[in-house]
Design a protein that fits this description.
The chain has 3 domains: 196 residues; 126 residues; 86 residues, Orthogonal Bundle (Non-ribosomal Peptide Synthetase Peptidyl Carrier Protein, Chain A), CATH 1.10.1200. With 424 residues, it is of the alpha+beta class. α1 crosses α2, α2 runs parallel beside α3 and α12 runs antiparallel to α14. The strands form 3 sheets. Strands 1-10-7-6-5-11-4 form a 7-stranded antiparallel beta sheet. Helix content is 50%, strand content 12%. The chain starts with 5 loop residues before the first strand and ends with a helix. β2 and β3 form a beta hairpin.
Length: 424
């Protein structure tokens, strides 16, 4: 298989960076994301600003499915299902295409403007990864045309220690024919990406996210799902297979909890919830390390340490208890930044009217813009209420308020300040 002409670790790229994807990688804790999330995160931060990707950590999930073979459950999602869940939190429109088995056909999907195509393919065929030639597994990457289409870059922000060596964020450059050969004969799923306008308007309020987490957690605490999950690995007759599978499970859970802690720290900095989430993430990291040791021990014919299964169930219950407590005591959500409110209002109005944000920002009377009417005013109000998790008082919805960016910004500020007072 052809080797890349150039392959550069992202950490070795020299300043100043003019590549938005490389710049985005620099601002991401890539160790908190799995191989499907991480490259979508790069696109989101490049489109909407550093830190956007942390919205993926809001929901604290424990959802299992049956493996296609064997009796073990898994928290690992099917890649297509996971991609569908990425779109909303990241502010991206993700159009999932049919699998392609010809490299040339895949590269024909590359955006002509040099933008990136998100792809889920087989890590076994990706030379920059330690899995290359060793293990088949679904893996995402970004492909983009350079040099007028004569070359193709593969951008991959995946970061992990593997049994075959270290994977680190990298940008590799291939001749177009070389890049096509990487994907010949193995299904690859192309995903076209378009940033959605006004990512702030789509961001779910903290209180709402915490309430959804608490609803899921209450169901978990009412049953024995954590214990049944842990016992499935404990009771499997083939403990070598069980430990290998459990290593992946705890790796995925640890990364998701690390990302959740980053989200809480971002949305409720300095809160007791942020401190507790960081402690939970550290506990999951410790368990993942214990599972690695257990896997190595069983390969040598030694018994599996029994505490890993009890710890697994205990941590799942502790996560759920924290989720319920966080919703009960409140989010500690900081007051919205007025400058961010103005950007959100401007972007929301521009999206509703199909107008240039600069034109929206530059007028003191929105009714002068083409397409402005009562229906558009209502849609703007509803979007802003959804964005900030509030309901505007009917008496505040005066025409003069709704016809200007300043009026809408003031409306959001007054309402969110009133909500903060009510919660204090």
């Amino acid at each position: 298989m052809s080797a890349p002409t150039r392959c550069t670790p992202a950490s070795e790229l020299t300043e100043p960076l003019t590549d938005p994807l490389a710049e985005a990688i620099r601002g991401i804790d890539t160790t908190a994301l799995d191989c499907v999330q991480v490259n979508a995160a790069v696109l989101a931060d490049a489109a909407h600003g550093s830190g956007t990707h942390r919205e993926l950590g809001g929901r604290l999930r424990f959802t299992t499915r049956s493996r296609t073979t064997g009796a073990l459950p898994t928290v690992e999602q099917q890649p297509v299902d996971q991609v569908r869940q990425l779109a909303g939190p990241l502010g991206l429109a993700l159009d999932i295409g049919a699998p392609v088995t010809e490299g040339a056909a895949l590269l024909d999907r590359l955006p002509a403007d040099g933008g990136a195509l998100y792809v889920v393919g087989d890590a076994y065929r990706m030379p920059w990864l330690p899995y290359h030639g060793h293990q088949h597994m679904d893996h995402s990457l970004l492909l983009r045309a350079t040099d007028g289409g004569a070359r193709v870059e593969a951008v991959d922000a995946y970061d992990n220690e593997t049994p075959y060596g270290r994977a680190e964020p990298v940008i590799c450059s291939y001749e177009r024919a070389q890049a096509a050969a990487l994907f010949d004969g193995a299904p690859a799923v192309p995903v076209s990406v378009r940033p959605l306008p006004g990512p702030g308007a789509a961001r779910e309020p903290v209180a709402r996210t915490l309430a959804r987490n608490a609803e899921d957690a209450a169901l978990l605490l009412a049953g024995d799902a954590p214990e049944r999950y842990a016992h499935a690995f404990r009771d499997l007759s083939d403990q070598s297979a069980a430990c290998t599978a459990l290593l992946l499970e705890t790796w995925l859970l640890a990364r998701s909890r690390r990302l959740h802690a980053a989200w809480v720290a971002d949305r409720a900095p300095g809160s007791a919830h942020a401190s507790a989430a960081a402690e939970r993430a550290a506990a999951w990291d410790e368990l993942a390390g214990q599972c690695y040791l257990a896997s190595r021990r069983v390969q040598r014919g030694r018994p599996v340490p029994p505490q890993i299964h009890t710890t697994l169930a205990r941590l799942l219950r502790a996560d759920a208890e924290l989720a319920v407590e966080a919703a009960r005591t409140g989010s500690g959500d900081p007051m919205p930044d007025p400058a961010q409110i103005r950007r959100t209002v401007t972007d929301t109005v521009a999206d509703v009217l199909g107008a240039d944000p600069a034109a929206v920002a530059g007028t003191d009377d929105l009714s002068r813009l083409e397409g402005f009417a009562s229906f558009q005013m209502v849609e703007t109000v509803e979007r802003l209420e959804d964005a900030y998790g509030v309901e505007f008082a009917p008496g505040d919805l005066q025409p003069a308020v709704l016809r200007s960016v300043d009026g809408l910004v003031g409306l959001v500020v007054r309402t969110t300040e009133g909500l903060e007072v009510a919660h204090s």
